[in-house]
């Protein structure tokens, strides 16, 4: 189904929120020297936004270490996400989780994780609960090309298939796992081809194109809701920064390669689409840009003013 105007605008706003959130985080880190950026998602935004546009609030997402964009697209408030990253009590996990260990159950953001491939078994468990309860909810698992070489991926896809679980596996193939290129590490040309080994559909999508991601995920979500089981979607994408913010990525990839991907930037592409379809004019686009910048600006203020955990709170909720 083609997205209506409201959904197109939601997509654009969330692409921008994700990009500007991380740009704000990077600026704050350089000025404060305190804020840690971790693993930027910049360049990959079309995947999270296209996918989450196909979900309802009640549906679930499990994320990996590159989590900011997934969280924003699933509806975690930017100011609360910022507070989490600054390790403040207004974060959804009270600052104890950070980028790689946070959850916001109110919006179905079930967890991020530092264990590569670790969210795949989580997705299986969550989807099994949905199937058991007949709640009609779908779980999306976001993971990288590197994670698709983990045992959890192969075991997870097999279980999801034999149990026909309502899961959409979204592999964000950004070409590298840390400094290891996919051509070196992965035997197949398309990771989506691995779906055949587990008797589920496998689709490749252009991860720079929000609407292509949206279309593929919508179809996979429909299958889930009909009880037809899981799908593997491989989104071919690219991260503009290194594996982590300070990574000297030019030691393992060329400037030319980076520039080729930037020339296909998902946000530029979406702007052209909105203008071409006359969904908005240039002034309206500018107004959205300004509004989003303001949201990020106040998110930083909010997070900086949020209190850090007190000593007595530190051990609350910790299993011993
Ligand atoms: C089980 C496990 N092995 C290794 C690591 C170290 N590690 C962290 S991220 C990463 C690369 C992951 O690559 P990919 O899945 O492609 O995701 P991307 O970083 O490209 O988004 C590795 C090896 C880890 N955190 N967990
Ligand atoms: Mg990768």
Describe this structure in words.
The chain is an alpha/beta fold and 320 residues long. Helices cover 45% and strands 11% of the residues. It is built from twelve helices and eight strands. The protein has helices at residues 5-32, 45-52, 68-74, 78-85, 119-133, 151-162, 182-185, 210-225, 255-262, 266-276, 282-305, 311-314; strands at 60-62, 109-111, 139-144, 167-173, 176-177, 180-181, 202-206, 231-236. The strands form two sheets. The protein has a six-stranded parallel sheet, with helices on both faces. It has a two-stranded antiparallel ribbon with strand order 5-6. The longest helix is centred in the first third of the chain and has 28 residues, at 5-32. The model has no long low-confidence stretch (mean pLDDT 96). Magnesium ion binds next to β5.
DSSP summary, beta strand count: 8
Query: Which value, in Å, is the CA radius of gyration?
Result: 19 Å
Shape: globular
Largest sheet: 6 strands, parallel
Parts with pLDDT < 50 across at least 5 consecutive residues: none
Global structural class: alpha/beta
List descriptors.
single chain, 320 residues, six-stranded parallel beta sheet, 12 helices, globular, binds thiamine diphosphate, binds magnesium ion
